Every structure is written in structure tokens, then in C-alpha cells.
């Protein structure tokens, strides 16, 4: 991997949205240098080519390195010595580059790692189990990987740290943007004793769809994913689904059959063949010899009813455009094209559907969120 290819990969990480399969396939076909050149010349032929071109002003590899140096972070790219090669299992959806900040090296830290994820609104039972188990995993020499969120994520990080172990926090924002803000101290401690990582450039805030794309990184970095408390409709299940697609083990911790926070775990066991984990030793056993899962049933079918949301019927295109809107105020079409990383034609089409659905409305030459948004 020469310097021009590394620079091109860093530029691509600024241009595309995380997990963009179309851009990934395009780069695989042409190579990173030729792909950036085509986007710069407006000759990529990609559907989102105009949106990608609009972000070119953000893609300065040397400026990105300088920003990293000022805060003690680094950028690692595909094909370099520090790259965790298990991320290549994501195929065309693999990240082009990662921003890393921490005392431990990501590649070595993730060689013996497992993901521990779960509900943000976790119960005291879930948090207690999570802390105790993650301390045990750390004592056994395993790195605990999670997302830094409230609830189970935070308990996983704290449990590993309490045992003097290494933990990796994968953020949906830039590594210099603590999210949630209340976990600024925890994330700083993880950087001091473990690793904080993101595929979003420095200064990037969170967007709803980036939490889901972040989850695939958590699944791909690790050898197994352990789910401790999750509702049926939970972002945690996206991490479990990604792990299944990557042929990684998925384990779920059971809880009270009356608890909505355990319904997602029970569903993973019953419907998706997740391995039931009743103690940390169950997890450690799976991480050694291969284990066979035995699906088990639940009792209360009401727990499997999936609540409906206003955005359920929106396509990925509409969700990306809606996520590009500010929470307040108006935004121009050109700004939406840039922030969504899509073509003007797709953004305009999405705005029409969002307007009919009561999510946004035109305001002169601009657009604004309303009602259901």
C-alpha cells in the first residue's frame, strides 16, 4: 500500500457514508486512487456521485492527519500493518479507514475480542450481570468491545476496566466527540487504558443511521457477540444479525419472561438460534471449541409484538435524507445533497415522499422538519 493509495482511502472515508456497498464495490473495481480521481472529475457514474463530489472539500488527508496528531489519535487504512484484517470480512461494506485513539493497538487488542451489547434502558439485573461477566472475560485475557452507550454498553466497558482489562469503544461519532456527552469521562478513560475507534472523521457528530452501520464494525472486529438484555425492537439485534452474516457466534443471556428488556434475547435464542449463555463460562467455552446452539422457546407471545414507528415504511434513501435535516431550522437542497451524500435527483425524490408523509415541508427555497419527524 503506497502513500497515494493511503491518501485516497482517507479521502474516501470522508466522502462516503459508512457501509456504502456501492462505493465499496466501485473502489474494489477501480482501486482507491482511480476512484477518487473519477469522483473529483464528476465521471464516476455513481448514483450518489454528485453528493460524493460535494464532500470533496472535507477530504484533505494531510489536514486529517494533522488534526489527529493534535489530539494523539491516528488514522489506519486497509492494507496497512495496523489494520484489523477481520474487518475485510465485511466485503464491499468494509470501512476505508478508521480513526483510532488509545493506549492499546487496535489490531492486537481485537485479536482476542468479543462484543458485549444490549439495551440502553438496562435493568439493574442486566447491568450487574454485564459488569461481572466482562470482568471475568478480562481476567481470561479477552478484550471487551462495545459502543459506549448508556446501559449495557457502559457496564461492559466498566466491567472490563475494573479487572484491569482492555476494552474497545466503537463510536458512531468522531473519536473526539464523546457520545453520549454524559460518558465523556468514561470514553476518556477507555482511551487512556484501551482503544476508542470510529470510521467517522474527527468532529463528526452522530446520525441515527450511523449507529446501525457502527454495529457491523463491532460484530466484525470480534469472534463472538454476547447480547445482555434487549427489547424485540432494538438496535442491538442489528449487531447480532451482522455477526450471524459474518459467521460469528451469537450468544444471548436469558432474563425474566415478563421483562420486555429480555424479550429480544429470548427471541434471538428461540427464532435465530443464538446460544443461550447462563454464565460467563458458557461464553468462554464457545470462544474455544465450537459449540452447537439449541433453540429454546418462549412463553408469552405478546413479547414478540414489534411496535410500529412512523419511519418504518421509509426506504433507506428517505431515512438518509431525513437524518440529514437539522433538529431545528431550515436547510437548503444543496446542503441536504452534501450531508446525505446523495445525488440531487435522489434527494429531491426523497423530499417529495417525506413531504407527502408529513415528515418535512418546503419553506421558500429551503426545507424544514415537521410533525412526524
UniProtKB/TrEMBL annotation:
Residues forming the Smf/DprA SLOG domain are: 75-287
The processes (GO biological process) annotated in the record are: DNA-mediated transformation
Note one Pfam family from the annotation: DNA_processg_A
- InterPro entries referenced in this protein's UniProt entry, alphabetically: DprA, DrpA_SLOG
**Cross-referenced NCBIfam families:** dprA
Tell me the protein family, please. Belongs to the DprA/Smf family.
Task: List the PANTHER family.
Answer: PROTEIN SMF
Protein name as catalogued: Unannotated protein
Amino acid at each position: 500500500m503506497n502513500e497515494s493509495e493511503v491518501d485516497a482511502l482517507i479521502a474516501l472515508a470522508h466522502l462516503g457514508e459508512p457501509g456504502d456497498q456501492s462505493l465499496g464495490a466501485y473502489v474494489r473495481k477501480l482501486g482507491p486512487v482511480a476512484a477518487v480521481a473519477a469522483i473529483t472529475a464528476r465521471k464516476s457514474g455513481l448514483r450518489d456521485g454528485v453528493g460524493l463530489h460535494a464532500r470533496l472539500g472535507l477530504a484533505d488527508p494531510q489536514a486529517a492527519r494533522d488534526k489527529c496528531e493534535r489530539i494523539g489519535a491516528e488514522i489506519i487504512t486497509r492494507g496497512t500493518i495496523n489494520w484489523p484484517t477481520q474487518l475485510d470480512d465485511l466485503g464491499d461494506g468494509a470501512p476505508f479507514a478508521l480513526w483510532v485513539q488509545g493506549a492499546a493497538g487496535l489490531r492486537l487488542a481485537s485479536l482476542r475480542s468479543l462484543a458485549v451489547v444490549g439495551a440502553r434502558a438496562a435493568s439493574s439485573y442486566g447491568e450487574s450481570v454485564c459488569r461481572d461477566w466482562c470482568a471475568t472475560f478480562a481476567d481470561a485475557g479477552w478484550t471487551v468491545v462495545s459502543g459506549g452507550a448508556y446501559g449495557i454498553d457502559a457496564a461492559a466497558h466498566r466491567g472490563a476496566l475494573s479487572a484491569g482489562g482492555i476494552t474497545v469503544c466503537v463510536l458512531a461519532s468522531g473519536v473526539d466527540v464523546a457520545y453520549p456527552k454524559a460518558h465523556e469521562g468514561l470514553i476518556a478513560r477507555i482511551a487512556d487504558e484501551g482503544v476508542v475507534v470510529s470510521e467517522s472523521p474527527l468532529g463528526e457528530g452522530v446520525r441515527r443511521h450511523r449507529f446501525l452501520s457502527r454495529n457491523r464494525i463491532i460484530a466484525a472486529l470480534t469472534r463472538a457477540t454476547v447480547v445482555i438484555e434487549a427489547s424485540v425492537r432494538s438496535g442491538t439485534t442489528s449487531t447480532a444479525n451482522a455477526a450471524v452474516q459474518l459467521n460469528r457466534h451469537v450468544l444471548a443471556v436469558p432474563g425474566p419472561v415478563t421483562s420486555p428488556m429480555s424479550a429480544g434475547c429470548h427471541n434471538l435464542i428461540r427464532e435465530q438460534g443464538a446460544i443461550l449463555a447462563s454464565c460467563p463460562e458458557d461464553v468462554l467455552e464457545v470462544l474455544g471449541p465450537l459449540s452447537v446452539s439449541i433453540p429454546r422457546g418462549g412463553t408469552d407471545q405478546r413479547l414478540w409484538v414489534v411496535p410500529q414507528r412512523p419511519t418504518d415504511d421509509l426506504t433507506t434513501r428517505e431515512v438518509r435524507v431525513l437524518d440529514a435535516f437539522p433538529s431545528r431550522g431550515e436547510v437548503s437542497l444543496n446542503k441536504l445533497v452534501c450531508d446525505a451524500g446523495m445525488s440531487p435527483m435522489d434527494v429531491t425524490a426523497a423530499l417529495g415522499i417525506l413531504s407527502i408523509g408529513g415528515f418535512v415541508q418546503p419553506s421558500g427555497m429551503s426545507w424544514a422538519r415537521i410533525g412526524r419527524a
